[in-house]
Amino acid sequence: MDELDLLKKDWNTKSNHNTISAKDIYPMLHRKSSSIVKTLFYISIIELLFWVCINTLPLVCSQSYKNKLDRIYTSDYLFTALTIISYAVILSFIYLLFKAHKAISITDSAKLLMENILKIRRIIKYYVAFNLSLFGISIVIGLIYNIKNDPNTSETLHAFSKNQMLVSGLVVLVLIAAIVLLVWLFYKLIYGILLKRLNENYNTLKNLEA
What we know:
Blueprint (H helix, E strand, L loop, with lengths): L2 H9 L10 H40 L1 H10 L4 H30 L3 H40 L1 H8 L3 H48 L1
Helix pairs in contact: 1-2, 2-4, 2-5, 2-7, 4-5, 5-6, 5-7
């Protein structure tokens, strides 16, 4: 339990309200919130580098993989557009987190700090929702392109009966849902823990303002 948690515990004890004031707790809430946002900022940069490596390393390291993509994506405008949108969103997210960190760093008002925390919560929720949606859409588009342009996949599907097609479709839907769920769990683990701490700070600030 850190110093801030100890102070909050004492604050919740009525007999200590006279000895512990909001002025004792607010600076620590301020520093802790600023530190959380800075951590979120660094995580978002790492995430950007991760996706860049995922997208570029296979193309650089495997010529056969690159040839397969060129064969499947005969028109790569859509693929390029999705990639640009994805990177644009991540870069925008990094910029917004950087601005939020700067705003918190110079904030000396509990009300403004609370507003900034709410803003960061909204930014992260929108970011995660957008990324999950884009990820799911990208998988579906990739499957459609693969079925349409990959001869092996097309021949296999043409040989399927109606029941086999139905089962295959259900399996694909389950796999897509499972992959999106795993990505959601990743975001929940990485961003959820920090968001929970921000929420705790926000609730403490509300009690101090009451």
